Amino acid sequence: MKNPVRSVVSRSSLKRLPLYLHLLEKLSAEGVARVSCTYIAKEFDFDPTQVRKDLEATGEVGTARIGFRVASLIGRVKELLGWNDTHDAYLVGVGNMGKALLGYRDFEKYGLRIVAAFDKDPQKIKSHVFGREILPMSTLLKVASKTPARIGIVTVPADQAQEAVDLLVVSGVKAIWNFAPAPIRIPRGVILENARLTRSLAVLTNNLVKKT
Amino acid sequence: MKNPVRSVVSRSSLKRLPLYLHLLEKLSAEGVARVSCTYIAKEFDFDPTQVRKDLEATGEVGTARIGFRVASLIGRVKELLGWNDTHDAYLVGVGNMGKALLGYRDFEKYGLRIVAAFDKDPQKIKSHVFGREILPMSTLLKVASKTPARIGIVTVPADQAQEAVDLLVVSGVKAIWNFAPAPIRIPRGVILENARLTRSLAVLTNNLVKKT
Fold it and tell me: Quick one: which of A189, A182, A150 has its CA closest to A168?
């Protein structure tokens, strides 16, 4: 194993790392060379001990009272997140969410490159979204045999999600990023990550009704 | 307090409730009248005890071996989530993510109604996105004095996020749903919920690099 710390980082730490990375890149652009956990903690209103623990999971060692080297820490955070590598992805389902993801230029910064987009709708096929041609779903396996990808992004309606996932799994993807609000079954060895807007909305609206 | 259980439900329970709701509505449409925790747990590969705890937080009481009444449970879950009420919202920033949210018809099901969309870009102002006219940011306070909203959805770039939030707070919104990858400061009493795609992507790509 190249980097043994990778296996011990918690899911909640992982979710905070993109935030730190964003701040570190801003500081780097401003010419700041060193940063302390206290500074980062203050910026996000987090507990400094938690920030220290999150950052130490990257393997980077800070110096007392001086802190971490910004440039070096950026590299370590990216490595832990897997954002130094490039991950090719297919996107299935070019509705509103699919279009938003196709247009999201920052993905390349995170190592995610959407190499092909598919849809079932004949109206959408052959049209272009952000300069990319939409391909028919029926060609996915053929495309995969020439241009394999490791991630499948699922932005189809809930009732078509399992079918899309099954096809992506057959095509050889190793991870599914699912945006459909449906329970998904995947074979052992394939990674499933659900990105659900409604989870975040649930917390917000529950808090709102509690206040009234 | 009308519903005292509201204050004890955990954030992680809240995040699972939209999933249950989706399944319950599917069952209801299929004419299923009763459902057990075991069935729901199996559907999502969750622990049945956890599902029971989540559902009991709604105040609904199940019957041993028979389970919960689907119709009644749907009502309770929606009440706990605040999705029985309608929450008017402004959306600020009509980029790709803003457009995707404007086009997301299911929000009405969750009680979220975007009543106005704003942007700074003169190219976008007066254009229509999903039948809605995009208004200039400078008119937000005027709009708010006539059509107040309780939620502000922020889909501007990171470096414009704080400014958008400040304006929304002045307009009187009680909750911010932030999609920008930036730390946000809000006054006490205003709810902040961050919806960050990169958090979910971080977990996925970290798992992917661990496997290789």
Answer: A150
Q: What is the mean pLDDT of residues B45-70?
A: 90
C-alpha of B91 from chain center: 13
Interchain contact, A14 vs B151, CB within 8 Å: no
Alpha-carbon radius of gyration of chain B: 20
Return averaged pLDDT per consecutive 10 residues of chain A, 212 residues in all. 54 88 92 94 89 92 88 94 91 91 84 94 90 94 96 94 97 95 89 87 86 70
Residues 6+ apart with CB under 8 A from A42: none
pTM for the whole thing? 0.79
The nearest alpha carbon in chain B to A195 belongs to: B200
Mutate: best of B3, B204, B208, partner A, most A CBs <10 A: B204
| Distance in Å, alpha carbon of B202 to nearest chain A alpha carbon | 6
Q: Give chain A's domains with CATH numbers.
A: 4-81 (1.10.10.10), 87-199 (3.40.50.720)
Query: ∠B104-B107-B112 over CA atoms, to 5°?
Result: 135
- The answer to whether ipTM exceeds 0.85 is no
How many CB pairs below 8 A link A and B? 172
Which residues lie below 8 Å from residue B116, measured CB to CB, with a gap of 6+? Answer: B90, B91, B132, B135, B143, B147, B149
Tokens representing A98 are 């699919």
Most confident of A176-180, B13-17, B125-129: A176-180
Element (H, E) at A176: strand A175-178
- Residue B152: its H or E element: strand B151-154
CA Rg, chain A, in Å?
Answer: 20
